[in-house]
Amino acid sequence: MVHFDLRRLMTLSLLLNEVVTNSVKHAFERGKRGTISVRLEQETKERFLLTVQDDGPGLAKDSSKGLGLASCKIWLRSLVARSAFRVSRA
Prior knowledge:
The protein is an alpha+beta fold. It has a single domain, classed as Histidine kinase-like ATPase, C-terminal domain (Heat Shock Protein 90), CATH 3.30.565.10. Helix content is 38%, strand content 16%. It has helices at 6-26, 67-79; strands at residues 36-42, 48-54. It has a two-stranded antiparallel sheet with strand order 1-2. α1 runs antiparallel to α2 (67-79).
């Protein structure tokens, strides 16, 4: 079992809310079904890997300029001293 302090847990919940909401709003055409998966893996005692995937078409080219992505990067930096944010097309 993994335990997080309240500050990290709140930040993680904001991050997850933004990413999953973005997938629901933008990944799937209206009326179409899709899949969103969220995984949190403990790689070492102090290192975790959070993966959020959907089976939508991928990010639009101009989506990296949005407020949501900028907020996610800020939340990631506040969670850990070092973070990586990678967007990829599966």
